[in-house]
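Pipeline run #58 for the internal structure catalog. This entry was flagged by the ingest filter as a single-chain record with no existing model, so it goes straight to prediction. Upstream metadata was stripped on purpose; only the residue string is passed forward. Reviewer on rotation: M.T. Logging verbosity set to normal.
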Amino acid sequence: MKRLEGGTTPMSHEHAPAPYDPDPGTRSSNTRLRTGTQAALVALSLYIAYESVGLGLWTSFGPGPGFFPFVLGIALGLLAVAWAVQSMRASGDDAASAERVDVGHAAAVLGSLVVLAAVMDVVGYQISVFVFLMFHLKWRAGRSWVLSLVISLVGSVGVYYGFNQGLMVQLPPSGVPFLAGWGL
């Protein structure tokens, strides 16, 4: 058994030493950065909501050009406020461990969003969003095939027809004639 300082050996009921805890200066810097980011997101959401009202929220045909930016601006503000409340309620140790960022995951999400934006006009909304969702659900998150397929189909084909038929908002169809002929 490994000897601890002072010549004693650990007992089976003792816990392992706490993981590395950054110094208080780093923790307060992270807290200021987090609080500043939350405040900036709330301010940005208010600006987006204010500007989108000027575009018009509703027309006689349905949602106006400012409707979706308004909804997304309000959602951004609510999520930023929820993040701030969670940060305030969490203790120092919980906040530090909960705020760790997986850089590989963030890079995969951002990279896949760039690819999605680049290929959507070529292959259309349905195919590009289906592949995007399958990538994140099956291969990144490791979900089952059935769950991944159902969510991907609803998120791509279902949303496409919901927007086209229900809201009368055209999402990008495929630019490839063969795929466009199939309604994709």
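catalog note: The CA atoms of residues 71 and 80 lie 14 Å apart.
catalog note: The chain has a mean pLDDT of 80.
status: ready for reviewer M.T.
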